[in-house]
Amino acid sequence: MAAPGNDSTTVSLTEVQIRQRTRILKDIVARYAITVGGISVIMAVVLIFFYLLFVVIPLFKPAEIEEIASYRLTPPGIGDQTLHLAMEEQAEIGVRFTRSGLAQFFFTRSGAIITKQSIPLPPQTTITSFASGAPHSAIVAFGLSDGSAILVRHAYRVIFPNDKRVITPRLDYPLGETPLVIDSTGRPLRLLAVQSNEEQTSFGAITEDNRLLFTHFSSEESFLDEDESALERSSVELKGQPKNTRFLLLDSEQQHLYTANSEGALSVFDLSDKQQPNLDQRLPSVTTGSKITAMNLLTGGISLMIGDSGGRISQWFPVRDESGKSILTHIRDFDAQTAPIRFLVPEFYRKGFLAADGSGQLGIYHSTAHRTLLVEQVGQDKLNQLAISPRANALLGEDSGGNIHFLRIDNEHPEISFSSLWGKVWYESYAEPDYIWQSSSSSDDFEPKLSLTPITFGTLKAAFYAMLVALPLAILGAIYTAQFMAPRMRQIVKPTIEIMEALPTVIIGFLAGLWLAPVLETHLPGAFALLLILPVGILLFAYLWTHLIPGSIRHRVPDNWEAALLFPVVLFLSWFSFAISPILENLLFNGNMIQWLTHEMGIAFDQRNSMVVGIAMGFAVIPTIFSMAEDALFGVPKHLIRGSLALGATPWQTLMRVILLTASPGIFAAVMIGLGRAVGETMIVLMATGNTPVMDLSIFQGMRTLSANIAVEMPEAEVASTHYRVLFLAALVLFALTFVFNTLAEVVRQRLRKKYSSL
Into which CATH architecture does domain 458-522+606-756 fall? Predict the structure, then answer.
């Protein structure tokens, strides 16, 4: 009998050991799996952060220049003053216009001459002045000693034989090779300004006897043949230019003419009426003791840049005053250089510019960002000519020794600075500095407005109104469900609310934008009346239930099931509030509350506004806050509650002094996680608001959030462009906001847990 018993005992011990070893193995596997999973999550978050940082960092990289080649174009013994340098888009071919009327096309990297072309000058005439048009137009003009001018365009034909790029330069004459009469008296043109497009060409000129002339040519199509066009000329002499005018500029839209002398006297002429231009404004443009040494217009022709003898560069553009009149206004200064500014060269498609001074230093600036990107010496001598490529990635400069310098520029994101991202910026055509997000336009000379302030403000505004709706409903609902609701009713209510969290936010946003927004607009007084009628109605129902309803009826309702009776009450009160909305609107707001808000209160109304977003996002956030807060409240140890009640505390005293304090870490964590979700919400804001990046606290105005902005604009952003990287910066800001909120929540939660752990 002993042997079988020993075998059974041995078998039993072996099974126990196997179970223990299996359990230990499962514990080890689970521990390592959880550890690996947790570390993987942390690594994923860290990698996301560093990837965002990797994309964003190039935004703040300073400009760099590198000299590629240096050479002389003019053969020894032949001197000819350079009037203008320019390059084609690929920066492979440059052109040099000289005082003798010669155009030399050359390879920028070697200086090898490709071709030479002479401007067809009339016999016995010489070049007395020169002007270039807007950079992208490739237009130049030569003023002649007989009072005429020749308009020339340098153009480049690009072909790809055998998949190899071949660029062929040429000169075009948009208005013909015959010189255009500017001064009918035939006096030499001392100064010249020009702008030209397909429809019209304008010249400004100062003659040898100091008369200011404005001459305009417009193309008129032939009535009989659309391919033929006649050139219509008008010329007028203007009065009011400064004495000893040295600078003359036309804007690219041919609407304004600027004249200035060295002492800083500046006159602005309005050319809206080409037949009768008029003097619009006179003003000083430099400080006392300084002189104007350079003047040019930024791309777009709105901003006037003035360089003075002290090395200061100032930006001016028209600003409308209270009467609506545009006044040329000083906007900002750049003080990085100290020698007199000799040349100001605008970039083709950005609001940046180059400045060369008398000491040979070259400065690279961006006006909107108010940013000095680089100040560096180029060569041994001062620069006499300067040109930038259309893509702003190369420049040509000719020094006083006749040497041509070809340099590469690395300056991808000059538009970005701390002030342009977060501060108020005075943009062209705006009445004052402001926070603006406007990343694109149909115009090539558009001034990007990439302030993150309005969309960050919109993010916080949307989260604020969402929490304003969600917090009281979620927290109070969690308190009642956890502590006062009947267990069977809780088993129905809690899962129902938690299921709401699975509802796709795109559905909520769709309903909010297409159904809720029009309903609230139509019944706006009723929506506000609901805030008063609903609580008063519920209190009135409670009073009637406890004081007027017979006990025989009340006692039929099981304990703690009274809340179920509020469902029809809430539905009725909501219907009643919206039903009386037209009556309230007629009585209080003359039949139109929105018009009353706009005209009487000065409050603009947008159908898809913060109220719609607050309700929709609040509805989406409620399940998160409710579920976590209810779990924290329901998890309060029962002995604490029973002990408080046994000592004579009422249920409400127990709630306030025991339950809420004990559950406060969990409640706070629920609130902060709900706030984090509201901050990062995308689809609801995208569909339920107008997506206008405005900074307005009004509940009747919409907003644009960081997440919605990324969702809207990332698909159309060019990879590695400034717009693309700023969107990644917005994502980094959103990442930082959620990280800060979650970290703060954890710190506070741990402190609350430590403080109330002794209860």
Answer: Orthogonal Bundle (1.10)
Instruction: Judge contact between 194 and 132, C-beta under 8 A.
Output: yes
Q: What residue has token string 């990287």?
A: 725
Instruction: Look up residue 682 and give its two tokens.
Output: 């995308």
**Rounded distance, CA 672 to CA 667, Å?**
9
With beta carbons less than 8 A apart as the criterion, state whether 490 and 561 touch.
Answer: no
Q: What is the CA radius of gyration of the chain?
A: 38
**Confidence (pLDDT) at 324:** 82
Q: Which parts of the chain register pLDDT below 50?
A: 1-2, 76-77, 223-225
What architecture is the 71-284 domain classified under in CATH? 6 Propeller (2.120)
The confidence score (pLDDT) of residue 1 equals 44
DSSP class per residue in 634-657: HTS-HHHHHHHHHTT--HHHHIII
CA separation, residue 290 to residues 64, 230, 287, 683 (Å): 30, 47, 6, 57
Domain boundaries, the chain: 71-284, 290-419, 458-522+606-756
Q: What is the pLDDT of residue 13?
A: 67
Q: Which CATH superfamily is domain 290-419 in?
A: YVTN repeat-like/Quinoprotein amine dehydrogenase (2.130.10.10)
For 427, the 3-state DSSP assignment is coil
The structure's pTM equals 0.87
Q: Could you tell me the CA-to-CA distances from 757 to 527, 585, 749, 752, 754 in Å, in that order?
A: 43, 54, 12, 8, 5
Whether the Cβ atoms of residue 397 and residue 407 lie closer than 8 Å to each other: yes
Residue 270 β-bridge partners: 256, 278
What does the pLDDT read at residue 217?
93
Residues 348, 353, 355: CA angle, nearest 5 degrees: 135
Q: CA 592, CA 289: separation in Å to the nearest integer?
A: 62
What residues contact 356, with CB distance under 8 A and at least 6 apart? 341, 342, 343, 345, 362, 363, 378, 382, 383, 386, 397
User: Under 8 Å CB-to-CB from 245, ≥6 apart: which residues?
Assistant: 191, 206, 210, 212, 259, 260, 261
Angstrom CA distances, 503 to 567, 594, 621, 670, 681, stand at 22, 32, 11, 19, 14
CATH topology match: 290-419 vs 458-522+606-756? no
Asked if residue 177 lies in contact with residue 140, where contact means CB atoms within 8 angstroms, the answer is no
Encode pLDDT of 574-619 as tens digits: 999 999 999 999 999 888 899 999 888 888 888 888 999 999 999 9
Terminal Cα distance for the chain, rounded:
60
Alpha carbon distance 269, 216 (integer Å): 14
The closest alpha carbon to 86, from 138, 137, 127, 130, belongs to 138
Residues 482/634, Cβ–Cβ less than 8 Å: yes
Enumerate residues 6+ apart whose C-beta is below 8 A from 234: 215, 216, 274, 275
Which tokens hold the place of 220?
A: 């008129």
Summarize pLDDT for 344-390 with one digit per residue, the tens.
999 999 999 999 998 889 999 999 999 999 999 887 788 889 999 99
Structure confidence at residue 500 (pLDDT): 87
